[in-house]
Specification:
By secondary structure, the chain is an alpha+beta fold. The chain has helices at about 35-50, 55-60, 65, 175-185, 220-230, 230-240, 275-290, 310-320, 335-345, 365-370, and strands at about 5-10, 15-20, 25-30, 80-85, 90-95, 115-125, 130-135, 140-145, 150, 185-190, 205, 245-255, 255-260, 270, 295-300, 325-330, 350-355, 360. The chain starts with a strand and ends in a 7-residue tail after the last helix.
């Protein structure tokens, strides 16, 4: 189920924003424009489906720190909301904060930084209307079962997590289960560890790895898997496109894998410990974009980090190729990368700007993102 529309409100620099998505989505903006906030808003749906919403927000400083910090309407509840349309379905997650407790500090809830899921909705989109399939308010929820009958959730919901993770009878609620599986299958790559002690720089025990880990720790095994059961020719072309004449070798001894790169003019291959950060990052991007098990949705946040400008065009061509099997989302401030992708896919980039502290799509105002509420 590809995402056809994304709506975010109340999250960090995003006061209110709505945008349509296609097979290839390139989000361009200067540092501080809010690109990463859009990326992380989508990431919240993925972790909510896995039961990691509270922990993820805690890693960002707790729920109060991720809410819109700009001017608010008096007496209006402070809320963070992310909604996506997935073809004929739409899902919305709305979170708030635990109300202030005037009791003595020792008597207050010690987990006050946890989110409070206020509402969740799953709708079927039909003829311009939203038909409710699931509705949650605080700790109770009702949903439509496989026969279309209304059923109340059998137990009290944990307030800090989504109903998606607390669904106990997926066969009974197939549409909700389908959304949960879809969100959980999304992949996000933000940072590949390339410091001298990074696991990818050293021989490492490996197994068949069709999906690269989020930090690239299993790079050697992932590349070997592509050569073994994936697009080996595409991998070889990706190497030659970026480093003309170079050849990749994955050495394996007693189940321990390591990366070697044969470069023209050198009498011996370069080990991963000797490769530059940019070269290793490019190899990680190759492994992520040529996965033998492509995801329905693949998001990369500023993949150009540490890459030499000469690698941006090869990377752009890889991204365009990946968009044929996965819906791709890329945030970047590299115009050259955006132009390469646009030329290869005919998908124009979306430019973000900051206005009065709020992230907006260039050429649009927040009023353009307002939509009337639909009666279910």
């Amino acid at each position: 189920m590809p995402i056809t529309r994304l709506q975010i409100s109340g999250y960090r620099s995003v006061r209110r924003l709505s945008m349509e998505l296609g097979p290839m989505n390139v989000i361009v903006g200067a540092n501080g424009s809010g690109k990463t906030n859009l990326y992380r808003a989508l990431y919240l749906l993925s972790v909510a489906a896995e039961g990691r919403l509270a922990r993820t927000l805690a890693e960002e400083g707790g729920t109060p720190s991720v809410l819109w910090a700009g001017p608010r309407m008096a007496k209006k509840p402070v809320r963070l909301s992310v909604e996506v349309e997935l073809g004929e379905l739409a899902y919305e997650l709305t979170c708030g904060i635990i109300p202030f407790q005037p009791a003595p500090i020792e008597a207050r809830d010690p987990f006050y930084l946890d989110p409070e899921v206020k509402t969740e909705h799953l709708w079927a989109l039909s003829g311009g209307r939203k038909v409710v399939l699931m509705e949650r308010k605080d700790r109770t929820a009702f949903m439509r079962d496989a026969e279309g009958k209304r059923a109340t959730f059998s137990s009290e919901l944990w307030s800090a997590e989504s109903v998606l993770d607390q669904l106990g009878e997926p066969h009974r609620f197939p549409r909700l289960s389908e959304v949960q599986r879809t969100f959980a299958s999304w992949r996000f790559y933000h940072h590949f560890r390339t410091d001298p002690d990074a696991p990818m720089r050293h021989p490492r025990v490996g197994v068949r790895t069709p999906v690269l880990s989020h930090d690239g720790a299993d790079l050697a095994a992932a590349l070997r898997t592509i050569l073994h059961i994936g697009d080996a020719r595409g991998l070889e072309q990706g190497i030659d496109d970026a480093f003309p004449g170079a050849e990749l070798e994955i050495h394996s001894e007693q189940g321990r894998f390591s990366v070697l790169l044969h470069m023209p003019g050198l009498s011996r291959p370069m080990a991963a410990a000797e490769l530059s950060d940019g070269t290793l990052r490019y190899l990680c991007l190759l492994a992520a974009l040529l996965s033998p098990r492509p995801p329905s949705f693949l998001a990369l946040n500023e993949p150009e980090t540490s890459l030499h400008p000469d690698l941006l065009e090869p990377l752009g061509r890889l991204l365009a190729k990946a968009s044929k099997t996965s819906q791709v989302w890329v945030t970047t401030h590299a115009e050259q990368l955006a132009r390469t992708v646009a030329s290869a896919t005919r998908c124009e980039p979306v430019y973000l700007v900051k206005k009065d502290g709020a992230t907006q799509v260039e050429g649009r105002s927040e009023e353009d993102d307002d939509e009337p509420d639909d009666d279910a």
